[in-house]
Design goal:
Blueprint: H1 6-12, E1 21-30, E2 33-43, H2 44-47, H3 64-67
Antiparallel strand pairs: 1-2
């Protein structure tokens, strides 16, 4: 859990001064070499008491957000090339 960066707070409709987010950070590998870093941010009140709070890989067949009554509406990918 952390205080969201201003851009994340704005996109999630949160107050960057008061609200907290749950962050899921992942590194994906191909042939033992990292090829993707992915961070996902969830409002703490939405994630509280769900598998999103577990510090391990979690997945649900229908989608984790849908399984807790919040079907994903959109996804924003930001690609940075070092």
């Amino acid at each position: 859990m952390e205080i969201p960066p201003a851009t994340v707070a704005e996109r999630l409709g949160l107050d960057a001064e008061k609200d907290i987010v749950v962050v899921r950070r992942r590194v994906r590998y191909v042939d033992d070499a990292p090829f993707q870093v992915a961070d996902s941010y969830f409002p703490e009140d939405l994630a509280r008491g769900t598998a999103l709070m577990q510090p391990k890989d979690v997945s649900v067949l229908s989608g984790l957000l849908a399984s807790i009554g919040h079907a994903q509406k959109r996804l924003v990918d930001e690609i940075q090339i070092p």
